[in-house]
Amino acid sequence: MERYDLVYRLYDEYETTTLQEYQEFVDIFPAVDSRVALEHWQDANDELEARKNEIRSDFAAGETFAELAAHTTRDQAFTALDLEAKYGCAVNVLVLDVDETLRSAGNTDNEIPRETLHVLTEFHEAGIPIVICTGQTLENVKGFAIQGLGSEIVHSGDLSIVYEAGTGVFTPGHGADTKQLLYEDLDDEIRDVFDDVRSRVLPDAPPDLRRGCHLQGNEFNVTMKPNYETGSTHAREIIDEALVYLLELLADSVGTVLAFGSVEEEGNTENGGIELEGESITDWTHTFYADQDPEIRAVLESEGTYPDLDPDAVPGDLKAVLDRIDVAYYEADAAEIGSLELNKVVGVERALDVLDVADPFALVMGDSKSDLRVMRWADKNDAGIAAAPEHASRDTLEHVLDTDELVFDRGRSVDVLWTVYALNQLARLE
């Protein structure tokens, strides 16, 4: 009998919804020191096993189908079947963004839900490495990873953290390869620009920006975050202003490097006003990044700072520098300057190398343009599948819809994770 027919039969003949409720209760039941509560848990576990045993005895691959029925909905199981038919292999590494992917300020109170942490533990126990890939600082990620997954998993040697969107990689348990500062490989010119921006970003900021923003404690990237609730009107307004300010500050620093060869020259903090081919470096910088990202252009237009210049006319020596520097805008969340030579793809490749995943087929989950780069890398290299929340950036969502349509509701990354769990179960069958 075809697998599709077997799965149809599984979900038609068995009360899988009730089975899943028992499984979730047994898995997520909180640790309490109560005899009555533990007896209730034992009763639920006995009923769960009895229902699973019915399935085990009724199918040739009974254990696999019992796990499918207990953990995945009908839709998830059939999606897994489609993925298995299309790719013919299991996922062997998870590459996961955190903010607005595993957790959401809107739906999960900015905490990773317990059911999500549980399924990640299931993957770990199945020997699947996990790469946490985020724009957050290392200390932030280590903190919630240890709190959520436990120190044993974090230090198992099978978990890696790509932090600050690829400027560093932390893989506990791998000796000299445990922490790799990828930004140290950049040349002096680019590092000078970042050092100058970082040293001036708060001291030179207008008073309202100093009050309304804070600087994320990065090792390398320069990230301005709102002192308001992410997603709020106040956060959107202050981050729009911060984006314009960062672009102007970047233009000043790049102008210094181009004009003097070193940002250590004193006395000129307005080198964005230097003219190249009749226009200021600031205007050329605005033009360059507006052409790169429609969202940045929209902000510049709304703030009245968008210059009507031809992006193809950006002077070559300036373009050569800007081509290596990334400016990222996350609406009502952050404005950031990073290195295009150091992005999540570079970090993920280094993490996979340390984890010894030689032939990756990854589940890449994320919501932003930086995650999209990893998704495109996986797609180009036949190295995985992509998933995104429904509120992801437009380009990210389009990519996911154009590939396998693995779109999940805000705060419900667990749905895709269980789908991939089912894929891996099915891929084991002969």
UniProtKB/TrEMBL annotation:
<dbReference type="GO" id="GO:0000287">
    <property type="term" value="F:magnesium ion binding"/>
</dbReference>
<dbReference type="GO" id="GO:0005829">
    <property type="term" value="C:cytosol"/>
</dbReference>
<dbReference type="GO" id="GO:0016791">
    <property type="term" value="F:phosphatase activity"/>
</dbReference>
<dbReference type="InterPro" id="IPR036412">
    <property type="entry name" value="HAD-like_sf"/>
</dbReference>
<dbReference type="Pfam" id="PF08282">
    <property type="entry name" value="Hydrolase_3"/>
</dbReference>
<protein>
    <submittedName>
        <fullName>Haloacid dehalogenase</fullName>
    </submittedName>
</protein>
<dbReference type="InterPro" id="IPR023214">
    <property type="entry name" value="HAD_sf"/>
</dbReference>
